[in-house]
Amino acid sequence: MKHLIYPTEELFCDNEQKKYPGTAGCVDFLLGGIGTGNVSLGARGNLTTWQIFNQPGQLNRMPYTFFSIWAKPEHGKAVARVLESRLNPPFAKSQGFFRNEMAGLPRFDSAEMGSEYPFVNFKFTDDQMPVQVSLEAFTPFIPLNADDSGIPGAYLQYKVKNPGREKVEVSIAGSMNNAVGFEGYNNFSFMQHAGERVNRYRDDNGVRGITYTGSGFSDQHITWGDMALTTTAPAENITAKPVWYQGQWTDGGEDFWQDFSSDGRLDEASIYEQVGSTWAENSDFSFLHFTDKIGSLSVTHSLEPGEEKTFTFILTWYFPNRPKMWIELDKDRADINAGNYQVTKNYYATLFADAWEAAAYLGNEKERLYRESKAFSNAFFSTTLPGYVLEAAADNITVMRSPTCFRIENGDFLGWEGVDNDLGCGPGNCTHVWNYAQSVAVLFPELERTMRRIELADEIREDGYMPFRAYTPFDLPQWEMTPSADGQLGSVVRLYREWVISGDDAIVRECWPGVEKTMRYAEQIWDRDGDGLLEEPQHVTYDTELYGISSMTGSIYFAALAAAAEMAEHMGHAGDAEKYRELAQNGRRKLDEISWNGEFYEQIVDDVNAYRYQYGKGCLSDQLLGQFMAFNAQLGYVMSEEHVKKAAASIFKYNFVERAKENVHAERAFILNDEKGLTPCTWPNGGRPVFPFVYYGEVWTGIEYEAAALLARTGQVEEALTIVKAIRDRHDGFKRNPFSENESGYYYTRAMASWSVYEALLGYEYDMRSNRQTFAPRLHADDFTGFWCNGKAWGIFRQKKTQDGGLTQEVEVLYGGEGTVKRGK
């Protein structure tokens, strides 16, 4: 272990969650279900990014869309505020803030945000406000229930308490622009649309509010659909202005604020018999010809002294048409803009007919959806691990509900590597990136199984060639590039993981032919001499080929051989099982003989500088990648246990940097100045190639979590925690978004390796083929509580030390069938 990098009290802190002030300008908390698109909340409590239109839209903002509050004590003066804290610098805009940002309206003095996924909470403060206001927002998230975790909408629950001695009347209004047909922005940040938009008030099926629709354009357009802003409040407590006054300049905003701030209620329509600006006759400026269709919904309650009431709003959307293509390049964007695309349906469009139906479901099922989502949140955040560890695992759940991931109408779960502002990065369920991710496989195994089927049944060719990017779900020609050795062999390991997690061998039976093809392909292409090591060029996740022998790909080969042996035996192919085990044994022995230097595994290549982008004698953070995957798949050790422990220690010893400025490289920079992090490779014994592999100096959180999980599994807990704390310290809400660990894009898939660290520290092992699970907490073992989840159930595990020195264990099932879980030995 290096010298103590963090004080003990910081490293081994309790499970309290971080709070973010309204000034934390990088915070962006995503609301929305799996594969539905998202609406975000910033640390001020403000609605920020709208990515609900079937493509990445990191810069999408919704003009004139906000919540506001009006409060009047019985004998006092009314106070009205936008329900968010004051705007943060910088303010250096060429025209100040645009009119449609409503920056001139009064806001709360401050806000504080906290999150226990899937819930985000805000506390607003303002000395002039006669009531106390907080917000709890969430989209249902229930592990093992993908449909109820994939609803296109969110709850925003404002809780208002009267701390005074007299009655206070309170109204909260939500205002939202109609974005149906959205096609971008003009130079004044007004939204541009296809067709016409229509807002109207509606009351049926248990919810009341405004429905936002459109007409006059194709129902195949990717932003064809509708939206809704609703509430379950009684009709007598509701007033609405379905469409703001369509005037010039700021007329609509002025009218709304004067109307709402006067008495907290809204007039349905406003009529003004006045002469407007004649400039409109000679100019087509959008602010002179106001066409935005904003609708506002207000709920009013009276609060007695000491009373608290909840104002519940439900925001839903329905944009069913997803482009039947991967939108990654400028030419793809040009095709979208020109309308040159076909569409498939989002999976959520098979669950709901429109946004109103989704709102009604959320309204009528709210008690259950809240209870089950809260059961998960409470159980997970009761875990006796440091708060930053829980944040790392929970906050990266966001990835599966971000624009990175989506679900098409047949139920297939698809994903980018990450997303940029308006394009995706790395299409097609990239196998060598998804190798690292664990969250989806554990929490929603039915979704992860669709990925294995795509890889091992749909994409793989008869000769064993498997593209590492999937195009067949969109009926497109296959990706033509050298197969990825780490990704393809990793698919075999992950198939075994899916079998162990679910206990259902249907996926094995379906994909077994693909496993056989893959193992033959490995023998014919990468391991031509049949010695259990891959010597031929191997394309890997560094977007290059490794030459010679590398423990990175070799360890994945060992894990794939172990997994294939188990599956072969199950399928009645005992001879193949024996062959795979013998290959793995021979390969392990030879790797230790030629690659192990006493501290870590080196790349064995005749002349490292004969090829660009190798690592040679370097200490590679990914050198045990296959072992990491084997642990995730419950395969145990597939390499020398002693060497794994020593190599993990060396990865930390040599590759963890305490000050980024000392990590000199010409790559992209993900850590800066005095920040800490784990680099992919260093050369402690010299031998650095002239041109090392691309990305050698970058810091990827997915690799950091991989190393941390390996350290935890091998008993090196302090080192594991140090890595995780460094990651989360960097994502503090000011420098980076804690809900988006970026690599090649926002919401990067590899970051879902964070769940592996959680399982490693829990000491959690399971095999649902025999309904068995065991726990061996690596922290606070004398008094431990922890959340667990397998493919059949989830709940809480408790362990306590008894007076006689023994341990008692209790497993509580919170969700899942009875009798599905037995305690292991």
Descriptive key words:
nine-stranded antiparallel sheet, 825 residues, Beta-galactosidase, Chain A, domain 5, Glycosyltransferase, alpha+beta, 23% strand, 27% helix, 2 domains, 38 strands, 6hp_glycosidase-like_sf
Concise synopsis of the structure shown:
The chain is of the alpha+beta class and 825 residues long. Helix content is 27%, strand content 23%. It has 2 domains: 20-370, Beta-galactosidase, Chain A, domain 5 (Distorted Sandwich), CATH 2.70.98; 383-426 and 434-760, Glycosyltransferase.
What does this structure look like?
The chain is of the alpha+beta class and 825 residues long. The chain has 2 domains: 351 residues, Distorted Sandwich (Beta-galactosidase, Chain A, domain 5); 371 residues, Glycosyltransferase (Alpha/alpha barrel). Helix content is 27%, strand content 23%. The chain has 18 helices and 38 strands. The strands form 12 sheets. A 9-stranded antiparallel beta sheet has the order 1-8-9-10-11-20-17-16-15. It has a 6-stranded mixed beta sheet with strand order 7-6-5-12-19-18, covered by helices on one side. α6 packs across α18 and α10 packs parallel to α14. The longest helix has 22 residues. The radius of gyration is 28 Å and the shape is globular. One of its GO terms (molecular function) is beta-glucosidase activity.
